[in-house]
Amino acid sequence: MAGTTAWDKLSDEMSNGGESNFKEKALSLLRILDRSFQECLDISGIDFVVWSDKSSIDWAVQCHVFDVSVILERNHASEIISSTQAFLSQGIKCNKYWVIHNHQHGKKGYGKFLQFLKEIENYKECLKTEHDTIEFHLIQRQ
Predict the structure, then answer these.
(1) How far is the C-alpha of 9 from the C-alpha of 40, rounded, in Å?
(2) What is the per-residue DSSP string for 58-82?
(3) Crossing angle (nearest 10°) for helices 114-130 and 74-88
(4) Element containing residue 38 per DSSP (H, E)
(5) Using CA atoms, how far apart are residues 124 and 131, in angstroms rounded to an integer?
(6) Residue ranges of the alpha helices (H) in the chain?
């Protein structure tokens, strides 16, 4: 495995490990950014949370695991939008909302995922006008 970095190995594990493995690895990485991340089972549309106080959330994260053999398209963006809306419709105040998924759409994959990314960008623009306090990011495993 000459030339393989620890990140290459982790990225591969995250893409092929299934939903529970992906979430476990994502939580470990999120805790590097904020130690107070915790699993959230009782609020739909999010998997991990950092509470600001009892009535608001500083940071919410949703994990999406897609079949890595398919190209992400509009319907995949609709899944993300639908689950994000499920969270936002509850009226819980939130500062940052991240969606992490197991695909890779960096420089090499951008053309393949153009429709997916366009839908997410359009949704992100809508969120800016509807929920001006929320910072929304779509993050690939890479």
Answers:
(1) 27
(2) EEEEEEE---TTS---HHHHHHHHH
(3) 20
(4) strand 38-39
(5) 10
(6) 6-16, 19-33, 74-88, 114-130
Query: How many whole angstroms separate alpha carbon 17 and alpha carbon 93?
Result: 32
- CA-nearest of 12, 87, 75, 88 to 44 is 87
Residue type (1 letter), 123: Y
Which residues, other chains included, contact 46 with Cβ-Cβ below 8 Å and sequence gap of 6+?
40, 57, 60, 61, 62, 87, 97
Task: Return d(Cα 109, Cα 125) in angstroms, integer.
Answer: 22
> CA 56, 61, 65: angle at the middle one, nearest 5?
155
- Written as six digits, the tokens of 80 are 């993300």
Return the bridge partners of 64, or none: 101
Digitized pLDDT (tens) for each residue of the chain, 142 residues in all: 455 666 566 666 666 667 778 888 888 889 999 999 999 989 999 999 999 887 789 999 999 888 877 788 899 999 999 999 999 999 888 899 999 887 765 555 556 788 888 999 999 988 888 876 688 988 876 6
pTM of structure:
0.82
Q: Rounded to an integer, what distance in angstroms lies between the CA atom of residue 19 and that of residue 51?
A: 24
**At residue 116, what are phi and psi to the nearest 5 degrees?**
-60, -50
